TrEMBL record, chain A:
Name of this protein: TAT-variant-translocated molybdopterin oxidoreductase
Source organism per UniProt: Acidicapsa dinghuensis
PROSITE patterns (UniProt xref): 4FE4S_FER_2 (PS51379)
Amino acid composition bias (Polar residues), ranges on this chain: 1-18
Domain 4Fe-4S ferredoxin-type stretches: 799-829, 854-885
InterPro entries to which the protein is assigned, alphabetical: 4Fe4S_Fe-S-bd, Asp_de-COase-like_dom_sf, TAT_var_transloc_signal_dom
Annotated region described as Disordered, given as residue ranges: 1-20
TrEMBL record, chain B:
Name of the molecule in the record: NrfD/PsrC family molybdoenzyme membrane anchor subunit
Species name: Acidicapsa dinghuensis
Coiled coil as UniProt keyword: no
Pfam families: NrfD
Membrane topology: Multi-pass membrane protein
Amino acid sequence: MSSEAGKSNMQQDPNGNGMTAVAEANAGLTLAEVRERLKGVKGKKYWRSIDELAGTPEFEAAVAKEFPDQASEWIDPVSRRGFMKLMGASMALAGLAGCTKQPEEPIYPYVKAPEDLILGKPNYFATAMPFPTGGVPLLVKSDAYRPIKVDGNPDHSYNQGSSDVFSQGSLMDMYDPDRSQRATVRGNVADWADFYEAYREKLLASKGNGGEGLYFLTSAITSPTLERQWSEAQKAYPKAKLVQYEPALAGTAFAKGFNPQYSLDKADVIVSIDADFLSGAAYPGFHKLVRDYAKRRKLADGDRTMNRLYAIESTPTTTGMKAEHRLVLRASEIPAFAADLAAAVGGNGASPSGYSWTEEQTKFLNALAKDLKASGGKSVVIPGLYQDPSVSFFAQGINVALGNVGKTVAYGTVAGQASPSDQVADLKSLVADLNAGKVDWLIMLNTNPLYDAPADLEFKSAMNNAKMTVHLGLLPGETGAEAIWHLPAAHYLESWSDVRSYDGTVSIVQPLIEPLYGGRTTHDFFQAMLDEPMVSAYEAVRATWKADLSKGGDFEQNWRKALHAGWIDGTAYTPGTTPTALAAAKAPQPVSKDTFEIIFRPDTNVYDGRYANVGWLQELPRPITSLSWDNAALVSAATLTKLGVEEGDILEITANGRKVKTPVLVAPGHPENSATLYLGYGRQEGRVAGGAGFDAYLLRTSDALHYTTGTVKKVDGKWGLAVTKSHYQDHRGKLAGGRGDGNYSLEWNEADIRGVIRAATLEEFKADPNFANQDTDERSIDHKDATLFPNWQYNGNAWGMSIDMNSCTGCNACIVSCYAENNIAVVGKQQVRIGRNMQWLRIDTYFEGDLSAPRAHFQPMMCQHCENAPCEEVCPVGATVHTPEGLNTMVYNRCVGTRYCSNNCPYKVRRFNYLLYSDFETESLKLMRNPDVSVRSRGVMEKCSYCVQRIQEVKITADKENRAIKDGEIVTACQQACPSQAITFGNINDPGSRVKKLRDDSRSYSLLADINTRPRTKYVAEVLNPNSELAEAPVEHAG
Amino acid sequence: MATKDFTTNDPMIDPETGEFRVLGQGQTFNSVTAKISDIVLTPHTPWGWYGFFVVAGSVTGILMTAVTWLFLKGVGIWAITQPVAWGFAIINFVWWIGIGHAGTLISAILLLFKQGWRNSINRFAEAMTIFAVVCAGMFPLIHVGRPWLGYWLFPLPFTMNVWPQFRSPLLWDVFAVSTYATISVVFWYLGMVPDFGTLRDRAKSPFAQYFYGMMSLGWRGSVKHWMRYETASLLLAGLATPLVLSVHTVISFDFAVAVLPGWHTTIFPPYFVAGAIYSGFAMVLTLAIPLRKFYHLEALVTERHIDNMGKVMLGTGGIVAYGYGMEVFMSWYSASHWEFFMMWNRMFGPMGWAYLVLIFCNIAFPLTTLWVRKWRTNITFMFILSLIVNTGMWFERFVIVVTSLYRDFLPSSWGTYRATKWDYATFFGTLGLFTFLFLLFVRFLPMIPMNEIKLMLPSAKIKPKEPAAAGSEGH
């Protein structure tokens, strides 16, 4: 949605001072008091969403005024005109680009290599996505020479085919119609050649003084070739300076080179100290860590052992929500906790912090220390990326003391980034040099410091002291608009490079398509400083690996092999056993509990803001909060009450003398008296990013990049947040089937009663393997014959799916994969707010237990492909029909749009094109679409098809080869993306198939079996492995 | 009609025939004919009529605007969303169809039951049926995502060779509603034929003579004509009678056949039919009371009519109340969690207010007051009551459609529903269209059947031995 639509949400609260009733709650309001207050509003007073905690009428008024004016916000005429302009420009440019003869740089297809292009037959190419926390090895599907689907490289040892929201979303990033399409100088159109000339002149002129005054500011260098090019350039220009700045990682131990390698598959006890390693690629090694974590929770083939995860965290994340035991601490308390844990376990001679923990916290600490000591060599402590460096120090100390090094964790390996540096110090000195007038040329490569540099550095005013400023980027952004030169960058899918993944393996980044807008990469800038300035990135990458690839024979042959496979053999790190030399640290004293804490985190969807213009990622509901299209100050329900505000109210947060206004939203399980601000929002430009959220960078200073303290107050106004799943509190009395006084989630209580979520502890599971399917339980019995219609007969294939609830961590990779595979439309914030988001697949999140410290259950939910499908019976035109293989298919052409099927779908997985949601106009987005899937128009119902196009493709191949389809040959898009391998798909008529085995597992249950839909998707019930010493394990299994 | 031992000075008893007096005193054949046909044939259209006509026409204009915008943009201009994929359109559809039922009941069932008093109100009640069906029938067509393909719901032999899906209640609706519309129109027209003859004979302007002459199909009022007319009336009444029960039963299947708690219930058919008649009579009252006042028809549509309609509403309202009660009881007695939660949510959930409105408008207010004859014959009171019941019955459909859908099986997909201005524009627009059509009807067609009214006059009753009175056999 455009900035206009976003701004129009900013409405004046007519009852501006309506908060006084709650504001009377004095500052020292405790959780118990809040509960006391809530007791008054149980029963019939039962309003929507958590924010009714205060029970004031403002919320109602807000909701009332949010919707009636929706109709005026359907279509934004400005952005539509913008579309047309850009379209024209892109067409003109496409014509120009076609005139240049490019040097021959052959790329090699992957396994399924056709002799030549066969239209309709896609090719697959191995490449990798550079990312600051490590490259993601990819296998990209290319149809008619355009990349249409990004997936993990299944043969790569690191991610084994899995991906994440960023790599999935990077496809749309490349086709982003807002990308810079030409070079500009002072806002006027220019040519790359003009820039080159100026740049070469400058380089020649600075040759004499060793490049003095030449400054490069880049994002983190992840490419070994780039690192080589820079070090060579440094030799030629010894006084030229390179500053790396990665807003999310600056100031972390990781950016300075601390990159331990964890082997969670060998760990019985995993402790996360504010390390969010399960929710996304923002944590280094995410793909491997999730896979290894999930591997020990499969309980397959009679295995009755599993790992146990403890999470100590300062903001709710999926890691904490999946943990057996979760301890909520304020961010500044975590280093002290790590110190005390190290002291308790006996790590690196740490002495207790002396901080006074509550009884509950002490109990947790003791039980955890005991469990860790008992699991020496089979445990691992993972420190948080965004924590004080002392946490990494203590975590390493604990791992050493427990003898985990060399078993579950390896230290002393090569850094995750090609050229680790102290980014904050470097950036500070750059700003100092700028202010001192020492900077001649400031070249900013793939970075956006005007937006994301620490606010206290005042980068904008500093930058204008440089004589020449150059910006290279995919989008102009804030920096490109201000810099003298702005140059379009090439996307990684358009250019050559190389990158190391978490385990050190080098992958060649090979382009899938010619740069759409003539973009260049950082390689060209550094190469220009060398003796052979015109060597392309392709040649540069080849040169870097010439020696390595020539070892085992012919270079060309090995090069082709490396491109083909997607990695260079033998480049993985050798696991080291020597701990990384970290400066002995002392845990900083936690701030007083009365101080309001502010936590900064890179966003789970748009990261540091680089994906802010990717519609798929903007519309993706975040884990835990289900918030899309905005960021918000996340606070606990008690803090919300204490502040006397409602969800969606505007808070003014002041920290370090800076202020920002932000809407507020409750995140269950958030620590008290603190707020989490996700970075990456508050952009002004971009058809998608513009106007969404607020800019948390405005508060972020160089000495407190990850958390700080401040004050907060309510200001006038309301911000309509697009939360895809509202949360309700259970105020029902016992008589009405409730069990809460508002402290529990209504959805959880209902989900539990309805058998939607079934879970047990490991002990319970051992005692009763059938806990999820009690014989007496109506919800578990298959009433095969209780239908008027004859049962379907399946003689050949019968497709089915199994979803392992124990493995799913709710990371959302599957949803973005589904977006790309099935051409799902992005509908915009206003439509999401009224519940019309089009995702075929959603992650249902249920919060179990007290909402101040809940456990979340993540349940991927898509079409269940029922045998007795309620949707099929009610469609008057037969637009949704059963196939002979048991798929419940939508015939888009036949659909007239009565929506009866959706009403009758108990799982509510159908999605309707209420308006014309698909973009039929933007040229670049047309290239992105999967040609095997129809783009749905207005008035048509759609839903998950089990990726029928993939099934068909495999069937045709098998048919041609006159063989049966092999188990595992058909991989759905969600299954392919899933890093925890929670999704299994296959033929349930094949007794040997994995899906059949999983469906027959004693833990496997059908959702809503009591209404006899007999779904084809089954869920494998969760099993938790709590520590018996922490008795109050919040596990309640379905009765 | 039964003759009971009433005291002879009861003003409601006709002293000559001993029957209940339905019409006002002092009416003659001539006065009835003049009264009714003058409304149609007068060259001086009342100013008030123009006033209403302009207002109703403007509201119809709003409907046209709303529907045009709907066709241009899609059904997303309404509030429907996931999980509430049906909203105002279906509520309005059921409401309008329900309203239509009173007309059919009056014209068919009361005819078969020889309820002579119906003669005063059956014509405009039938007209109401037809216009309500027009309004209702519009909604299923415009509410689909691709209305230009709406004809796919009909079993037409296309080259595509694809038939509709006969298991779908929506398809049954197509047949039910189209049959209903056809029978209603035919019955209505047939009833007007003798009156068209009268109008033709009394018309002064050549155009009116020509028009009513065409419409009267050569009616001469011969005994044969009357005989055939009465037979055809009876046959059509016989055909229409099952429709009174079946149409709303089929409509209720839209809900009852679904798996959704709150829809999936066997009580829906009788409960829907009773509700339909209940709301229909309320609408007849809403129309009759202003009409008799405006056109001074108090002698033809008497307090007795109002009173009788109040009694019918009391009866059908009682059935509706029983339906509500049974729903609540079954939600507990079935021991089904789905039912229990649905009912709890319906009554105490965020949209509990709608349930309260429904209970007040349909049960609490009418079923306590309608017992009192004094109030039943209080015209102002009955007019207000009819509006309240109409509102309540609309909310009944709102409660059924929305509060069942917005919180169903999986708590994760719960949502809410907030109507948009286009929802309101479409709904109020159909009220405008209905009024518009009705105004045209009262202006150009005989709104009260002259021929049938005359049969109720004392002068028709006291000459039973006259051979010319063959028509009275049917009554």
